[in-house]
Amino acid sequence: MKWNSTRNPEHEVSLKEALFMGLAPDGGLFMPASETNHVVGESSSLVETAHAFLAPFVQPEISEAKLTEILTHALNFEIPVVEISEGVFVLELFHGPTLAFKDVGGRVMAGLLEAVYDNPEPLTILAATSGDTGSAVASAFLGKPGFRVVLLFPSGQVSEIQERQLTTFGQNVTTLEVAGTFDDCQKLVKQAFSDVDLRKVVNLTSANSINIGRWLPQAVYYHHAWNQMQAKLPGCKPVAAVPSGNLGNVAAGLMALRHGASFSNVIVACNENKSFFDFMQTANFEPRASIRTVSNAMDVGNPSNFERIATLYKHDLAAMKQDIYATTHSDATTTEAIKHVFESTGYLMDPHTAVGYLGWKQYQSATGTKEPVVILSTAHPAKFGDVIEHATGTPPEIPPRLAACFTAEKQSIKMQPDYNAFESFLKTLK
Questions:
Q1: Is residue 107 predicted with pLDDT exceeding 90?
Q2: According to the model, what pLDDT value does residue 22 have?
Q3: Bond prior to 396 in cis (omega within 30° of 0)
Q4: Of 13, 238, 245, 360, which residue is 20 to 30 A from 25 by alpha carbon distance?
Q5: Cα–Cα distance measured from residue 361 to residue 364, given in angstroms and rounded to the nearest whole number
Q6: At residue 145, what are phi and psi to the nearest 5 degrees?
Q7: 319-323: long-range contacts (C-beta < 8 A, 24 or more apart)?
Q8: pLDDT for 189-213, tens place per residue?
Q9: Are 414 and 428 within 8 A, CB to CB?
C-alpha cells in the first residue's frame, strides 16, 4: 500500500515513510493512495478483527505474522459494548492502560514503528494533547530503546488527573506545559514537521492522529463494536455517536464504513468548539480559536482531520450528509446529561461520552429512528472528577492505576507557544 497527501495525491510514499514523516511535506495528511475494497467479516476476537482490517494497509512492509504479534501485544484489554437502557449501547474504550480510547491507536502505532525503525539515531515522537493523547502515547513508548517522546499540553486546560498522568512518566518521556491552547500546541508540532532544517538534525514523527499509525487503528473498534452488536441484535444497523474534537476518531469510523462496519449513520457530536458543525450547515470550513469546555479533549478550533473527511468524500457536502449528522452541545446540557443518565440508569458517563449521548438524542428526535445507537465512550469518568461530582453530587471512584500518578513526582517544562524556543529545545535533545 502506498500513501499520498490530502493536498497532493500525485506524491506517493511507502508505509514506513508515512509513519516517520507524520505530516506530508505539503502540510497535508496521509491517506491510502488506492482503494483496498476489502470487507472485514464478523469475528468475536478483537485481534482477529484488527488483523483483517489493517493487514492490507501495512503489507508488504509488515508481515502477517508480525502484525499478529503487534496486535496481540497492543490490544490486550477488553473493549466491550454494554447496554445502559433499551436500544442505547456504549462502547467502552477506556479499559486500556491509561483509561482512554487513544490507548488503541497509541499502542498499535508503537508496535508498527518498532517493527520498521532501523535508524541508529533515536526517533523523537511529538504529541500535542488536549487531554488523553499524550498519556496514551507516553505509556505506549515508555522505556522503549531508540524512542523518546515529547508531549505538549495547554497549561491549566486539562483536568487535574490528566495533568498528573501527563507529567509523571519520566524515563524517555518529556512533557512541555505550553502557555496557550491545544491549537497552539498542535501548531508548534506542525511547524516542526515543516521545518526542513530541523529535520536534518532531529529524527521526528508525530503521535497525534495526523499520523496514520495512530489514526487508522481506530477504525478497528468500529468493526469490533458492529460485531458485538450483531451478536446482541442480529441484523441490526446501528447508529454510531462519536464525541468529536480533532476529528481523527470520526474519520477512522468513516473509513470503517467503507470496509464492512455497517452503521446507518455517524453522529459527529461537538461541544461548543463547532467548526465542523458549522461546516455541515454552511459548506464553509472556518477554523477559529478554541473555547475551553468541560469536555476538554474536544476543545479544538481547527481540527486537523477535517482534511481526511473532505478527501474521503471528494469535498462533496451532499455525500457527507448521507453518512454524517453533526450536532453541537453546551457545557450546561453536557453536565445535565451526565446527571440524567446516572439517575435514570445508574451508568456514569464522562463529559465526552455525554456529548455523544446528547448527539444521539438530538438525532433520534430529528429522524425518529428506531435503530439502536452505539455511543463511543472515550475516557473513564474518574478523569473528570470535578465535573462528575458537580453533575451527580458524588465524586467517581478512582481506579488504582490513576490514583498512582498522584504519588509520583511531577516533571514538566513550562514553555511559551513560541516556535523558536520549541525548535531550540528539540535540538538540545540531540
A1: yes
A2: 85
A3: no
A4: 245
A5: 5
A6: -60, 140
A7: 320/280, 321/280, 323/254, 323/257, 323/265, 323/266
A8: 989 988 989 999 999 988 878 899 9
A9: no
CA atoms within 13 A of residue 264's CA, in its CB half-sphere: 16
pLDDT for res 231:
95
Cα 415 to its chain centre, rounded Å, is 25
Q: What is the tens place of the pLDDT at every residue in 363-401?
A: 999 999 999 999 999 999 999 999 999 999 999 999 998
Q: For residue range 134-157, what is the model confidence (pLDDT) as tens digits?
A: 889 999 999 999 999 999 999 998
Q: Where are the beta strands (DSSP E) in 123-200?
A: 123-128, 147-154, 173-178
Q: How many Å separate Cα 428 from the centre of its chain?
A: 29
In the structure grid, which three cell numbers stand for residue 343, read together? 439517575
Residue identified by cell 500525485 is 10
C-alpha 138/C-alpha 126 separation (Å) is 10
Identity of the amino acid at 311:
T
Angle at 30 between CA 28 and CA 32, to 5 degrees: 140
Question: Which amino acid is present at 332?
Answer: A
Query: Are residues 384 and 159 in contact, defined by beta-carbon separation less than 8 angstroms?
Result: yes
What phi and psi values does residue 289 have, to the nearest 5 degrees?
-65, 140
Assign 305 a pLDDT band (cuts: 50, 70, 90): very high
What is the per-residue DSSP string for 248-317? HHHHHHHHHHTTT---SEEEEEE-S--HHHHHHHHS----------SSGGG--SS-TTHHHHHHHTTT-H
Kindly give the pairing relationship between strand 81-85 and strand 88-92. antiparallel
Q: Give percent of the chain above pLDDT 90.
A: 82
Distance between alpha carbon 34 and the CA centroid of its chain, in Å? 23
The long-range contacts involving 339-344, CB below 8 angstroms and separated by at least 24 positions, are 339/391, 339/392, 341/84, 342/391, 342/392, 343/392, 344/85
Question: Is residue 179 scored above 90 in pLDDT?
Answer: yes
pLDDT at 430: 60
CA distance 205 to 207: 7
Cell of 293: 469546555
Residue 36 DSSP one-character state = -
Q: Are 22 and 211 in contact (CB under 8 A)?
A: yes
3-state secondary structure of 168: coil
